[in-house]
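Renewal narrative, Specific Aim 1. Our central claim is that a sequence can be written position by position from structural information alone. The example that follows is taken directly from our test logs and has not been curated for this report. It begins with the structure tokens describing the chain, in the order in which they were read.
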């Protein structure tokens, strides 16, 4: 039977090992992501710009509508999925639902992330993608930015409503329940009995 003094160093050691393994896993994951970014940044911008150009075919109106659609849905849906993940984390089965929602959020954000590699990238592929969009997909980038801004405003509205509802429910749960007071009739009897009279 172990005493508390013997158990304490063992707990410290297991905590240290756990955190060491987590740090190593995070460093390895970041390294893998960086290498993947370097590889994909040379390929994705040009390829995605060509796919957009095939959809738009140089039409200004198509570029505007497709840009609005991609910007709106590609921003609003991932944000809502992340909100679902955050709200459901502590519930029963929450980690599984939160993890699935986070993965879906990443998948639905891929089109906008690929567009960001064109707009914000400094590689030759990014510059080639910009030229392709300028010629074959006019108004797409500006419309996508407009759609993303609209999506962000809508998300802030939804988040505000959810936060207000949760705050009101939390305040109602913390409010002490007051026992009902017995009801006293305010009416007096019409002829109160008189004592000491004949």
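The sequence written for that structure reads:
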């Amino acid at each position: 039977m172990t005493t508390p003094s013997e158990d304490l160093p063992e707990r410290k050691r297991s905590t240290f090992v756990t955190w060491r393994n987590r740090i190593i896993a995070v460093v390895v994951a970041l390294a893998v992501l960086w290498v993947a970014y370097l590889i994909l940044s040379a390929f994705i911008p040009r390829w995605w710009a060509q796919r957009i150009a095939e959809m738009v075919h140089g039409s200004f109106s198509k570029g505007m509508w497709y840009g609005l659609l991609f910007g709106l849905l590609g921003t609003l849906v991932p944000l809502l999925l992340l909100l679902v993940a955050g709200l459901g984390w502590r519930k029963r089965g929450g980690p599984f639902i939160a993890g699935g929602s986070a993965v879906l959020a990443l998948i639905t954000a891929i089109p906008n992330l690929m567009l960001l590699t064109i707009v914000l990238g400094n590689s030759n592929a990014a510059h080639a993608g910009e030229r392709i969009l300028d010629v074959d997909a006019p108004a797409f980038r500006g419309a996508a930015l407009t759609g993303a801004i609209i999506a962000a405003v809508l998300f802030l509205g939804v988040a505000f409503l959810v936060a207000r509802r949760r705050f009101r429910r939390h305040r109602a749960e913390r409010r002490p329940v007051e026992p009902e007071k017995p009801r006293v009739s305010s009416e007096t009897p019409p002829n109160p009995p008189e004592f000491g009279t004949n």
